[in-house]
């Protein structure tokens, strides 16, 4: 059995386990690693959670509950831009969370469905969007952001010491693209991957104009 670390509470609770996930990071949050971090047996964890999947869902709920969600907006476009910025900030602040969300798609965390409901209702009640249109734009915006973060993290994991842009350039060198396309992608990299994501968000919002009331 592990030994309780200095300053650890004598009575383990679910919040301790959730915070251990955030400390270790979603990629490294196995039940073995969490038990070691908390100084307890794995059996102690299962008094509070039934599986690693439940643990990850619970940790996602905590991340979203604690992340700032208020921002100013006076138009639907400002609101959707704010949602995109919040989602980007949320995911890049917790490496591995974007990939985790894909593994939990069959049983999404409660906080994700609540956030979707909240955002949809803002578009519907404040800016008179039809609910189906609001849902399709929000879903696309979230998928775009999560996919960009996830692919960026996967790319960086192949050469963590090189940095994202260097790792991407190495991938470009191996891709055997035409010189014209390679040059265009190199310009994108020079501006940074976050800027590229922002361009995609703006393109999506330009298209959303067709659905706006």
Automatic annotation (TrEMBL):
Residues 25-58 form the HTH tetR-type domain. The keyword DNA-binding applies. Keywords: DNA-binding. The keyword DNA-binding applies. This is TetR/AcrR family transcriptional regulator. InterPro entries: Homeodomain-like_sf, HTH_TetR, Tet_transcr_reg_TetR-rel_C_sf. It holds the Pfam family TetR_N. It comes from Corynebacterium marambiense.
